Amino acid sequence: MALTACKVRTTGTALRVTASVFAAALVLAACSSGGGGGGGGSASSGASKASGTRVTVTETEYGLKLSRSSFTPGTYTFVADNKGKITHALSVDGPGVEDAKTKNIQGGQEANLTVTLKKGTYDLYCPIPGHKQLGMNKNIQVG
């Protein structure tokens, strides 16, 4: 009988350890998931620490306003600031950067997108279906 009780205790301990390891794995997975990633190029999005030159992109229905108009090659963090009432996002396409985008953001929210721009023309736009065609589109020249 003492042997049975010992097995029960060991099994109970093993279950607690297994549950603890599983819970820790879930926490690590949640903390390390990026969310809203994009295509190629050097890009990151979400709540990652901003790096490079900060450029605010104010999004409204239906337009984009950039905090700067002059760009040289280098790393930029575009801060998509949704001042509108509906969901928007920000996407960047150009030399070395293809379909890099933020997650979808609700009105009043922001999301960061860090990309390395080379010399050339880039298209910044809202990838929500129909928004680009309604005016949420800017081309920038990196010289």
Write the layout of secondary structure elements.
Layout: H1 2-32, E1 43-46, E2 53-60, E3 63-66, E4 74-82, E5 91-94, E6 97-101, E7 110-117, E8 120-125, E9 137-142
Parallel strand pairs: 2-4
Antiparallel strand pairs: 1-7, 2-3, 4-7, 5-6, 5-8, 8-9
Outline the structure in words:
Strand 5 and strand 6 form a beta hairpin. By secondary structure, the protein is α+β, with helices and mostly antiparallel strands. Helix content is 22%, strand content 38%. It is built from one helix and nine strands; from the N terminus they run αβββββββββ. The chain has a five-stranded mixed sheet, with no helix packed on it.
Number of strands: 9
Mean of all residue-level pLDDT scores:
78
Shape: globular
Number of helices: 1
The SSE string, one letter per element, is HEEEEEEEEE
The helix/strand class is alpha+beta
Task: Calculate Rg over CA atoms.
Answer: 23 Å
Q: Please give the largest β-sheet.
A: 5 strands, mixed
Regions with pLDDT < 50 over 5+ consecutive residues? 1-11, 13-48
Strand content: 35-45%
